Give the backbone structure.
Amino acid sequence: MSSAPSEPASNPSSSSSSGSKRSLDPVFRNALRYTVSPREYELLHGYLLSRAPEQVKKRAPRPKSYAAMVKSGGEYNSDSIRAALRAFVAVYTGFKSWDLISQRLLRRKQTGTRYVALFLPSLGFLELMAWHSATTPPPPKGANARIAASFSLILLFHRLLFRFFTRLRASLLESSSAPFRERNPRVGKALTSSLTPAIGAALSGLFLSVAPASPLRITIAIYVLTRSLEFGFNALEESRTIFRNGRPSWFGSWLLMPVCYGQLLHAFVFDRDCFPSAFGDFILRRSPEYIQARPASHPSHLPYPSTYDIVDALALLSKQKWPAFTSPILFPASTKAPKQPTLARVAPLMNPAHPLTKHTSCALLHPSDPSCARVHLKYWLRAFPPTLRFLSLVYSAFALLSFRKAVADPRLFSAKLAERILRLAIFITGAIGSAWGSICLFNAVLPRTFLSTQRFFLGGMVGGSWAYVARRGERGNFLYCLRLSLDSFWKVGKRRGWWKGVQGGDVLVFTAAMAVLGTVYETRKAAVRGPVLRKGIAWARGEGWEDGVMEKVKGKGEKED
């Protein structure tokens, strides 16, 4: 018998063909699918792989093959995981870079950035970063990774839950599911509602608990809460549920300012640890004539009260029902040294006060001039120009982001920018000056025992009323102050025992706010102001970077809101 025929020699062309058709490693294939989208792979293949060595070209799949491979494994799931991974990398890199900048370059806390966030609250990233750097306790190990994981898990499960409840609703609406709906009418009605996917997807907000409990987490919850309430108000207004005959011209978000400023000023005086320190520094630095700086002629070896010593003395005097002022210059024998250390620290400021000064508040706030009206006029002359200069620098710098509008119509753009800066400067100067001046006013017109400590809240309300001047197009700034006030009010309530904190309460608030936001977006997309924000919500649902509103809302920011 003849021996078995030997195997044919391998053909080079066939070997190369088999090598090119050889399948990728499963681990590498899945990693590639969850990292690069088909369109990105096509660009990558065209620019990089086409110039790669032959061995790499043979093993790399063609763009069409890669697209088919991605679709066969579930394009929606791979796209969701890919977006979550990228969100993790972006958030982690952002917070890590911020930590390096704040620690190595600035060598101090980001107070300057918080000032910018105070006047430009639409930059939510700056606001969150500022509060992240303001954490008092040192963050735990891996805090940045936990924050990034929290954001990525929220995004991933928001997409998955939204798709799950959408499919479940579509399945229950079929005729084959009629028996189930008849047996369970309430459950069926809840699961077949058009709002079910939006509310169900909001359960992903529970993953905020992955982030460490910190002021940042509370800030995120308050931010999403205020934005959801804002958009809910827009939806109610557009549907004529409220203001059936149109919103009054005087009504707007500026009405939040009297209450917010009243609460913030009261917390600044009596509960300073529950008050944003950067905001307090901003107020004190722009309070000339009322907050006395150390004179250059004062001997360096003698003590002199600091700015916060003056505020502490005001708090103590209000608790003592504003005692009458006795001038040590006119009656040196009848005046005694104060027993309280707080008043003893401000003695170098009050003892040489003008002899015609009548009230202790006047002796503390403007000791060299007994006329409250003249002091207030001097305050405007000294405080308004620096505030106007500061706002001009900040807003002019950020106006460069809108250079297209400036190029299209430079005269109109400059006029609107100048008007906005002027209105804000008047508002800020008037708010701070009225808050201090109202202390003297109330002592002059009210009995000293009447609302002795609540006068700071009333004074803050008077100062916040200046927001009417800047009522047009400043809803973002007003809502930022509302967020500061809510955070401060919650801390004051916990400190004074008005309520007890709930563990994970900020996570529950965040989840509820996400449900409200999703409901508003589902029912009335135009109520969510801002095309970028609407595109972001659609992207978070897995619907792509698209704006669901065909006609853009124009002129809303210029109206009285």
About this structure: Residues 92-249+499-561 form one domain. Confidence is low (pLDDT under 50) at residues 1-21, 109-126, 128-135, 551-560. The CA atoms of residues 87 and 300 lie 54 Å apart. The two ends are 101 Å apart (CA to CA).
